[in-house]
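Methods, example record. To illustrate the input and output format used throughout this study, we show the complete record for Methyltransferase. The sequence lines were provided to the predictor; the line carrying structure tokens was produced by it.
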Amino acid sequence: MGHLNLPPSKRNPRQWKLLDIVSAFFFALVLLFFLLVFTPLGDSLAASGRQALLLSTSDPKQRHRLVELLELGHHHQPIEACPADSVDHMPCEDPRRSSQLSREMNFYRERHCPLPDETPLCLIPPPLGYKIPVQWPESLHKIWHSNMPHNKIADRKGHQGWMKEEGPYFIFPGGGTMFPDGAASYIEKLGQYIPITGGTLRTALDMGCGVASFGGSMLKEGILTLSFAPRDSHKAQIQFVLERGIPAFVLMLGTRRLPFPAFAFDLIHCSRCLIPFTAYNATYFVEVDRLLRPDGYLVISGPPVQWPKQDKEWTDLQAVARALCYELIAVDGNTAIWKKPDGDSCLPNQNEFGLELCDGSNDPSNAWYFKLKKCVTKTSSVSGEYAIGTIPKWPDRLTTAPSRALVMKNGIDLFEADTRRWARRVAYYKNTLNVKLGTPAIRNVMDMNAFFGGFAAALKSDPVWVMNVVPARKPLTLDVIYDRGLIGVYHDWCEPFSTYPRTYDLIHVAGIESLIKLPGSSKSRCNLVDLMVEIDRMLRPEGTVVIRDSPEVIDKVARIAHAVRWSATINDKEPESHGRENILVATKTFWQLTSSSS
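The corresponding predicted structure is encoded as:
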């Protein structure tokens, strides 16, 4: 203590400077320790470090090396979680990318996917407070608010009966903008003009669906409605629909054909969908015509049907329908109902839209990244019987071989063998592998490699709906699936799917490696790691994955399953099945971000 009282002239300047530096350094370390341990700064720094690590996998060389290690089973840690703000991330519908694109014909709201090397390799986490979804059929009327805490639709549309918040739930009264008294009474009104009951109609498309009050109510009539809407300012309307257990898909009618085959839907419905059907020389009406079966029905409710200040738009809509010889069955208030003619359109004729028939080079079922055509599809350009009235009623059409299967060599024999094969396989899944099909635990199902839809057909008595995906580089058999009264889409599995995270209870794939291979080649177009990370994104916590393939491929899949935090078992195939196959059955574990990960 004595030297502190020395006069300044007696102190040692060198000693004093050294003590100051040591003391300051010590106190700085203590302060940093307290900041890291006892304040949110430590969590933030840790999260940013993890984010830097995730972003580093965007470097092609590092990313490829990590994928290789994961496939070989040499990377023993689980794949990292994505940041907390990615809980609703859809890679191909990312507003940050789409906001920079052209607005013309809503191009910016269509699919625009990143390259794999541009995508961080991480697992999408559930939101804070996420719960295992309400089971079907209760989910039709209520879902957990915490699973998608987006109040925008409830606040803006609650007075129209769309949805409302009630305690820990969102409640769905069944209303809509054009049917605030409920979809049931609206459908009852449509039934005066359309054969809603009796099995004549089975597949429907609802464009711009809101929260799918229409599609949900049509289920009671035995009509399977695929609802679609883009990712838009309403925030997660399709996410709400899928959480309810109603078939839905994120999609925009913009510059490309919708990813469905020609003449797929018995009924196409628009309730205030605000699609400008007569714009761009009626291009959007022509696309609807491509999708609608001969003798099928088109229903448009809301603008411009007898709508104030939209007289010209309403006149033009009637004119384009007349040009295609659609029969206007009824105009009931603001709802118009047309019936499509059977047989070739009455074109060519004089019309103000310049509509002409497509030439023979047009394959009307080619619809994966296919630019919209301004010509009308000839029914004679598609072989087979597919008009309403020429195909069996539901449910007989499910098991009757459609004539469109004949386009493949031995198509009818293939169809019947496929139906029998999947009936055996599904029974084995349920009885031996204990997959929870047929229980309330499974409602939303996807078949990633559907072919003729045999897997979905074998689930006909279960309380499920199946999204049948036909890979775009394989034979285009999706028309057969629709002729059976089932639904689905085209897709290329080297890209992410257009759905929100956590939307399927069970995902099934037979021949997973074929989804990433070049047709007729052993070379891969993409990799199993990215594909399984995408499956994980679509799958709900505690959801089930069933994958069939050769023992070598299943071993590789099992290694990656560990990295994506699935609990998996490898099983023998059914005794009756031929060929070398194993079956992996996995459960997605219910993990959540810790506070240090958010």
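Annotations derived from this record:
Confidence is low (pLDDT under 50) at residues 1-16, 33-56.
The first strand starts at residue 142 and ends at 144.
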